[in-house]
Amino acid sequence: MTTPQGLLVVIAGPSGVGKGTVHERVRAALPGSVLSVSVTTRAPRPGEVDGVDYHFVDAARFQELIEQRQLLEWADYAGQRYGTPRAPVEEAVGGGRIVVLDIELQGALQVKDHDPAALLVFLVPPSFAELERRLRTRGTESEAALQRRLARAREELSAAHRFDVVVVNDDLDRCVEEVLGAIERARTVAGGPTVRAGEPPSARG
Ligand code: 5GP
To answer: How many independent structural domains does the chain possess?
Structure first.
């Protein structure tokens, strides 16, 4: 028998891949899971609420958070800064919860360095053309910002192999099922025996 353990799950993928919806569905399927609220220097979009969608801060405050080592990871993205507050994540994972992060590539790789047991899931679009179409339809960005996001998306897609699991987001239900399956497997492994075969239990650190 295995005991469920806390687990850090990163669900990343290029802007426009549909991460937000996948995040919502995954969290709805995992009662007690927590979505980390990031800090960003970007301005709120219409409808975004401070403390819910992001903690919106200015560049000076963000720099302070870096210097005080209050961020688990952080990255520059399309001219703005984004970071994950360290304390709430460590508390929740330590308390046995699943904590889900919606972050970009550089941050995801930093998380894995910090916590090798973290599960990195990368969502990819069915095609690059489809990604561009989704971003344009969303219409939240200026043309220049959209171009920066598309350039960054190309970069991110080429690093997909550095993730534990790559899931194509063409059919939402199937995509969510695959992500949930990967979380379930990672959780079982994390909660299972840490003793290697042939190693006496007394050797556990
Ligand atoms: P957006 O401006 O569209 O909300 O987010 C832009 C990108 O920043 C997305 O890929 C999003 O996943 C990523 N992001 C959001 N929060 C964080 C964070 O705390 N750290 C990192 N590294 N990326 C983040």
So the answer is: 1
